[in-house]
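Let's practice the habit of predicting before peeking. Look at the sequence and jot down your guess about where helices and strands might fall. Then scroll down.
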Amino acid sequence: MTAKGSYDLLVVGAGPAGLAAAAEAAALGVSVAVVDERPAPGGQIYKQPGLRVAGHRALGADHRRGRALVQAAERSGARFLLRTACLSVRGTEAVLAPEGERARTVTAGRILLAPGAHDRPVAFPGWTLPGVLTAGGAQTLVKAHRVGLGRRVVFAGSGPLALAFPAQLRRYGVPVVAALEAGPAPGLADLARLGAAARGNGRLLLDAARYRLELARARVPFRRRRIVVRAEGRGRVEAVVHAAVDDEWRVVPGSEERIEADTLCVGYGLCPSVELSRLAGCALRYDEDLGGPVVVVDEWQRTSVPGVSAAGEATGVEGAHVAEDEGRLAALGLVEDERRAAPVRRRLERRRRFQRALRRLHRVGAGVYELATPETVVCRCEELTRAELEEAIEASADIGVVKGFTRVTMGLCQGRNCARQLAALVAARHGLALADVPAATPRAPVRPVPLGAVADETVGDPGLFVA
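Done guessing? Here is the structure:
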């Protein structure tokens, strides 16, 4: 690998946090580069359509907000390195691998990690059937490619997404037949807290009311305290079985119901992408309601590692608006401009007050990790069932040891689909809190990459390899 390129600020991730940081930093007169694996900026929430759009207004306010953010970053003069994976971060050096090219090392005055998040994986019988999609996967199909999901679609999840996403799918013409929310309905105390936190968040409250009204008008049942128990079908989804849950999202016996469906969209929140942060040595803390392991930052979004900052979902899943302002703070931290940072901090406090008011309604119950049966495949890449994993877990609470026995987390997804479920199984067997289960040792590259992209070019073939 060769060293090539140097910037004042290298932003990893072109979602809300990364785009806002790029525009803010470029306005300060510093050189900025933004790295993202996708072919276009916007991240998951502001994913731009892959087709030419003639009327942006028809795609809604979220699309227009995302488009404005993308355009501001592009006009700022920041350099975009798209279709490029960040494989490793050490200090203020990052190893980047452009698609189809050799990896190279880039240096920067400061690196901002804004990699976003991925869907919280939930293993239940039938979750590997064709027709079962995560909310992120469904968004990509519908928003970016304008592809329909099915003829009878069930949404099961929790948090703001459980109300917003089914309504958004209906707008795109997707026939949603039921929406299942694992959390409770708001009580009087919740409504009082939301009312007290309404200042600066009126748009969010109006959006929630509009989504609920849209589902009601479309006669889509919206059921609270219900969780998906299993997906049934031969070769693909044919039915979804759901059940009532208690405060910890544990299934209430005898409460199962069955819905005929050909598609199940699952959205039980998001998990921060902290692989690069862990590899860089950043301090983390654990908060399941913010997604699990999150990066610890100071008032300027700086991590415990000199020269490395973090913003957006990596510091806790709190929504696109919070992510944007965290990105701005990280950029302003380059010059510690408190005057410009003050209004950003006030907005953040108002947003977070609103998030705290929602905490009881959207907290994640431990039962979400208890749905898999012994025969359920937990590690999809290595096709390992819960029973096979528990056999290894019986011998050790060390995930590294379990990994060595079974190859769990070693497949293409590198643990994104199974690591949290694995940690929950370890915690249950050895009497640990989920937060106290150490993660596997981070190693580069954090993304799958062709060996030829990272191989030392001085290594030659003395004729040992024959085609």
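How did you do? DSSP finds 13 helices and 21 strands in the chain.
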